[in-house]
Specification:
Layout (H helix, E strand, L loop, with lengths): L3 H7 L8 H14 L5 E5 L5 E6 L2 E6 L1 H8 L7 H15 L10 H18 L4 H11 L11 H4 L1
């Protein structure tokens, strides 16, 4: 995970956040029942990333990655929601303040939170699992559990 200064450099300054992302974030926060106190920025990251910058909760997302998840859906796809809820989960579960090297366990916690909230938002089990089935790597890495564990 980059330090705070390096994380700031990942943000794409000339690109405004997608207004649809703001709407999605507000909807997610309404389902959680909390104030939406996340700054959301397009960034040079592989997919999405939760981070703390200047004491603020930040969600950075790759605009191309999110566009591909949308697959021309008019409304936010369950895959898009899954990614954003997972990153919000990292914040709400306190992962930003833990540096014990047990990244796979924290990924599983964020996955559980995402699955729970997607259910509350109306997804089926199949819809909630779809993003994991298509995006998660088959083998475990030092930072992420294998697809089978995440499912």
């Amino acid at each position: 995970m980059p330090n705070e200064q390096a994380a700031k450099l990942l943000i794409i300054p000339q690109m405004l956040p997608d207004s649809q992302i703001d709407v999605v974030m507000k909807d997610i926060c309404e389902h959680i029942g909390l104030a939406c106190n996340f700054d959301v920025f397009p960034a040079r990251v592989p997919n999405a990333m939760a981070y703390m910058i200047d004491g603020k909760r930040v969600i950075m997302y790759n605009p191309q990655f999110i566009a591909e998840l949308q697959h021309d859906h008019e409304n936010p796809s369950w895959a898009t929601l899954s990614v954003l809820v997972h990153e919000i989960g990292h914040h709400l579960l306190g992962h930003m303040f833990v540096n014990d090297g047990n990244f796979p366990a924290r990924e599983l916690e964020a996955d559980r939170f995402s699955g729970f909230l997607l259910y509350r938002m109306g997804s089926t089990l199949n819809e909630a699992e779809e993003n994991i089935r298509t995006m998660a790597q088959e083998n475990e890495t030092p930072s992420h559990p294998a697809r089978s564990r995440r499912l």
